[in-house]
Design goal:
Length: 235
Amino acid sequence: MQQVLGCSVSYRIAVGPQQGRKVFTLQTIPSCEDDDRFAQVAKESGFSLHAGVAAQAWERQKLERLCRYISRPAVSEKRLSLTPSGDIRYQLKTPYRDGTTHIIFEPLDFIAKLAALVPKPRVNLTRFHGVFAPNSKHRVDVTPAKRGKGRPHEEHEDKTPEQRHQAMTWAQRLKRVFNIDVSVCPKCGGDSRVIACIEDQPIIDKILAHLMKKGALPPPLLPAARASPDSDWFA
């Protein structure tokens, strides 16, 4: 993935026989007039930073438009099309400064570019700044959980180390990650109560083995074993 990410940033082909070469682009002759859009744009090593947009706190509509622009999808399906040769052609919303209007990808390289946009597992995609930042001393005053560096020490004395360590229960994590609500009975839809939370692996194995022996649990769904195409030759 490091190679795929590097090629995606530097506009180079990541896979295939053309690996390492620049992607094919369609360009037009740029206008000789100065464009104010690029007056405050910095580019370095494939990255670009646009500092030409500013919004005041009272400009709610402008802030909403800016937030919608930031949270837009990475790829617009309306500007995607296929060429007669079977390649993927992506039309840019705004031409680049050098006149680039379209980018041509081979199908395999286009999949590599999409793979580079998928975030890694367990990576926090939300960044907080100001009073919501983790190191802000005022975070305890503005967050519902009242967690932060400014939290009084006497509140920690009322909880055990296990309670301070666990931010969420297993039931809350199952509902948040896998959409499994153990507080609702799957048969009648009534409320269920968590009696105990067992985390020791040997005890879990004994309970599952006992339930499996009594037939209370269905057998595990394992994929069918497959031999290699040349297994008969090796035999």
